# Entry
Amino acid sequence: MTYLNNYNYNLLAGDKLRLKYIFKEEVNYEEIVNDFITEEINNNPDIYFKDDEGFKGITENQPFYIDDDGIVIYFGLYEIAPYYVGIPKFKLKFDEFNKYLNYT
# Structure
């Protein structure tokens, strides 16, 4: 099995950084992220599971990591797509989502 682990910490406070902390408090981050992922899946629907086996939305402890130009939301193998797809990743680019974020 292939796994991807993330280690996101607020280095000033020493706390584990959860996805919701990256977004401004007044922003419904779940809706923004779910809409983005749904749109990306709809752009290539043949490689993702459908209906009850498909994407149902992010979780409170949704795995993610931050790279140079965005926040990458990812899912485990078989979670929303068959094994041959690999680990499904969806990047929220800073230049597109900056207005919703606390950290840029």
User: Anything to note?
Assistant: The first helix runs from residue 19 to 22. The radius of gyration is 14 Å. The beta strands are 9-10, 15-16, 64-67, 70-74, 89-93. Residues 40 and 80 are 13 Å apart (CA to CA).
